[in-house]
């Protein structure tokens, strides 16, 4: 009996069959399309700064008699809002203020904050204003104020004044306390 595999004719036919199978696979691969999905990730971060502000500001004591005129006020306490380590793209910061508006006289509700001390002094509120050399602005509830951030040092300082203020000059004796939330946004 002859070995069929060693037969040169069969070997040739067998080789042609394998060649045809390989070529048809290549043709299928060439004519087909593949869809491949690539996962690309990244992160967008918000511009930010390190904020350093005093948690408590003590306006001290003042005599009622020293506030006996409408518009009377205590001495001004300078409060510095400091920004450092700002993101490189930050060149300006906007500070906004939120607190309880003075409601004893609606004419002053957009200028000063209420005294929130339980049973505290009446006819007295907190006045905040800018001390940056520009026209004075009452930094009252909802007010926004912008100031520069130095692009070389990535830092900025906003100087503001804080004082007790009497709209009518008739404050009563008592404690004074007002809380204000300060928010920063960066450009």
UniProtKB/TrEMBL annotation:
SUPFAM superfamilies, alphabetized: Bacterial adhesins
UniProt xrefs under Gene3D superfamilies: Fimbrial-type adhesion domain
Coiled-coil region list: none
Transmembrane spans: none
Fimbrial-type adhesion domain boundaries: 38-187
Top-rank taxon: Bacteria
InterPro entries listed in its UniProt record: Adhesion_dom_fimbrial, Adhesion_dom_fimbrial_sf, Adhesion_dom_sf, Bact_Fimbrial_Adh_Pro
Entry-linked Pfam families: Fimbrial (PF00419)
An annotated GO cellular component: pilus
BP terms from Gene Ontology: cell adhesion involved in single-species biofilm formation
Protein name: Fimbrial protein
Organism whose genome encodes this protein: Lelliottia wanjuensis
């Amino acid at each position: 009996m002859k070995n069929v595999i060693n037969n040169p004719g069969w070997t040739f036919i067998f080789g042609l069959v394998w060649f045809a199978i390989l070529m048809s696979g290549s043709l299928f691969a060439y004519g087909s399309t593949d869809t491949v999905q690539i996962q690309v990730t990244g992160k967008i971060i918000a511009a930010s700064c390190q904020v350093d502000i005093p948690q408590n500001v003590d306006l001290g004591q003042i005599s009622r008699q020293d506030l006996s005129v409408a518009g009377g006020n205590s001495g001004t306490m300078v409060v510095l809002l400091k920004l450092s380590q700002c993101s490189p793209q930050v060149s300006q910061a906007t500070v906004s203020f939120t607190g309880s508006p003075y409601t004893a006289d609606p004419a002053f509700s957009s200028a000063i904050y209420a005294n929130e001390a339980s049973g505290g002094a009446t006819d007295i509120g907190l006045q905040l204003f800018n001390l940056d050399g520009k026209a004075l602005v009452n930094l009252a509830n909802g007010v926004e104020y912008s100031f520069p951030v130095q692009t070389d040092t990535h830092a900025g300082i906003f100087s503001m004044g804080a004082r007790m203020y009497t709209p009518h000059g008739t404050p009563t004796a008592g404690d004074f306390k007002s809380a204000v939330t300060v928010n920063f946004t960066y450009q």
